[in-house]
Amino acid sequence: MPEKPRLERQPMCDRLAMEFQDGWIVNLGVGMPTLCSNYVEPHKSLVFHSENGAIGYGPLAPPEKADRHLVNAGGQQVTALPGLAIVHHADSFALIRKGMVDVTVMGAYEVAENGDFANWRIPTRKGGGIGGAMDLAACAKRVFITLEHTTKEGGPRLLKRCTLPITAPGVVKLVVTDLGLFEVTPEGFKLREHAPGWTPAEIQACTEARLIIADDLREFRFRARA
Amino acid sequence: MPEKPRLERQPMCDRLAMEFQDGWIVNLGVGMPTLCSNYVEPHKSLVFHSENGAIGYGPLAPPEKADRHLVNAGGQQVTALPGLAIVHHADSFALIRKGMVDVTVMGAYEVAENGDFANWRIPTRKGGGIGGAMDLAACAKRVFITLEHTTKEGGPRLLKRCTLPITAPGVVKLVVTDLGLFEVTPEGFKLREHAPGWTPAEIQACTEARLIIADDLREFRFRARA
Amino acid sequence: MKNKTYQTFDEAVVDIPDGSVFMSAGFGGVGVPRNILAAVGRQGAKNLTGISNNGGTLDAKVDVGTLIAAGQVKKMYCAFTAATHPSQVTPFVRMYNNNEIDAEVIPQGTLAERIRAAAAGIGAFYTPTTVGTELAVGKEQREINGRRYVLEYPLHADYAFIRAWKADTFGNLVFRLTQRNFNPVMAMAARITIVEVENDIVPVGELDPDHVHVPGVYVDRLVRIPPDGIWD
Amino acid sequence: MKNKTYQTFDEAVVDIPDGSVFMSAGFGGVGVPRNILAAVGRQGAKNLTGISNNGGTLDAKVDVGTLIAAGQVKKMYCAFTAATHPSQVTPFVRMYNNNEIDAEVIPQGTLAERIRAAAAGIGAFYTPTTVGTELAVGKEQREINGRRYVLEYPLHADYAFIRAWKADTFGNLVFRLTQRNFNPVMAMAARITIVEVENDIVPVGELDPDHVHVPGVYVDRLVRIPPDGIWD
User: Fold this and answer.
1) Mean pLDDT value of segment B84-96
2) What is the CATH number of the domain that holds A193?
3) Between C107, C116, C127, which is nearest B132 by CB?
4) Alpha-carbon distance D53 to D48, whole Å?
5) Cβ distance D202 to B77 under 8 Å?
6) What pLDDT band is residue C30 in, cutting at 50, 70 and 90?
7) B138, C130: Cβ pair inside 8 Å?
8) Residue B1 forms part of a structural domain
9) Domains, chain D, ranges and CATH?
10) What's the confidence (pLDDT) of residue B1?
């Protein structure tokens, strides 16, 4: 396994956020996905939705602006943007189930080439932490996944079929890892962008699923950071 | 058929209202039942609920106090009492279906000794006007019915079985007519109070169902009007 | 955030195609989107399907009955296909009696819940209402915890016609008293929600997030009722 | 109108019997009825069944985990029976792993909707969530309009533990920002609703009817959080 540098988490999330379209309702999962909200393009107006019923909240609150009654789905204090609306939990998930969420970004343990993914339960541990992930995965218009390309032990996470209990079948549209950007197509994972210095063959070597190489494969697009 | 005086509508409704208990949530149907709200006992605090989501409204609004945004289920302008709360239509019927309404008072074409009643459709006319009656009838803790004892043609309305399409089966607890007060028991209609000057036999003669005469049968109790 | 304000009602309804399904809110004459309905009347879309508490009243005001009387509606889902009093024969009731319009009568609570189910992505639900009546005949039923229930399905719509008290430019809505009625659930259920507003449409940030009854994400088009609009 | 104010939390929970089912609101540490939970801890009711987003956190604050750690809870219905990170072993997770408490993991939206179904007299409903996953195994499913759904049943409770921002003496409730979360649906679902309030409980008539999030008819007992109560 080559010991080349991989992508950092922030550029991975920036890359997904570049796909968000003006006006989209965006739900960011706890953990790495919340980094997507650091990527701001002034011409795009996004509406951030969290499971606890905040619709249209803003960035994480600096301590002096924190409001103890306003948190995101991770329990982090966030800021109120003009236009914020609040609904209760049942109405918040009504919005999700109606299919109003344009994209949900989540972390995962595994993603499969058929669009399945797993992020809630490891059978060797009892129980699971499902939160709102199954509702979002089943109902959002698009599911984007961000995860490390390999396990700590170097094993693959982009698989032919998930080995862990799945969160939803066949829903993943786009995956970013620290090695590249992958579109989930009917034929499987299509490598669209690769981390600098990594060849498709090297990425395939870290991947269980067979990769399709995009005709227009290019190096990973970073945003121009201010 | 004797031509003795029968009860007026207001005392009929007063008599039902006397049964309301302190703290009850009360839903009054359009028409005659709304007269129940004219009967006020200062020691009783009732919460009037209407299908359009007003919980805790007050009497009909005199023109100078009318608010064009506040109407009851009959579209009549009513007054706001302190403590009024508003919910939307789905939440209003959630309250009804949960069984929170302690009593619903409705008019009817027919009531049967098994507690069925009919108030929404006459098969000789196409269509029906169901409004919120079926939800209330199916879900309220008690259904009270107020109706004329006989049809315009003198036919009975307290029947062995309803002839019209029913609104709900077996739900009626108490019936007031212009001839008396009737409890619906497992054995059928029990005449508890009779209109002044009317004998049980005379009332039975206007009734298809066989009446049970209460041991403590008494003359109709009017309220002492202020 | 997107400004969803339209200058006129005619602009806000111009693209409604023939054959659309619409929901129209209001109850007891309050919260009725009369200006939108008047514009749809002028626009002339045909073969519409309507979802509303009733099919219009006998007063001279613009309501769903205006579209029905103009022959624009082929079917109604509502809680009244006959008036409670036989003397009240509305255009809708007359046309229904003459088989000039189709209709399905639905108990008001089931109507509200079927709309809410569409707003909430629910596939179907069991309600106790109508059990033992002719309205339950032919419907799937089951006993749950010793009580009988009837299976009911969501009512979806292309458009919701809504009347609100206040709004901001993004479409956050506030209703006043029983103006609320069917307005929030219909606004949240339809694909495209068009709102007439009784007060000036304010910039985002002016409405208290805790007082918003319908989040702006559900709203597509807003029109301030002009001074010469329909107010009552 | 009835005054539902109690002077102390201990009075408000004194009669909760062993074996009761309770709902406890709160999400992300906000809107958690910590004072009520602390009182239930002192009161000592046993064999409780809990319905809550989670089974408590690792911080030192009073939450549902406090009752669990004290051995008062026999079963939890919640969206997390394991922490997202293996290092976060709460008392609940430890006891669940040791089979000292029973639990059912429920997707958060299904949890909220099952509570709402109890509040709305719905017998059961079909949701698309969990289709194709192990959580749907053994559950009734059906296809509606080309999509698969899973049948889910209401979650009823004897008590709801609620935290509100404002209240009047009749129990009309107002929440602030994401304090709202599970509070309204739980308050409307349970048989007996007990509320801790962050501001002075005002006379009826002081809250705007359009701003009330939970009508007082759903509320049974109110306690103002005292200055030395649990605030965060």
Assistant:
1) 98
2) 3.40.1080.10
3) C107
4) 16
5) no
6) very high
7) yes
8) no
9) 9-124+154-224 (3.40.1080.10)
10) 52
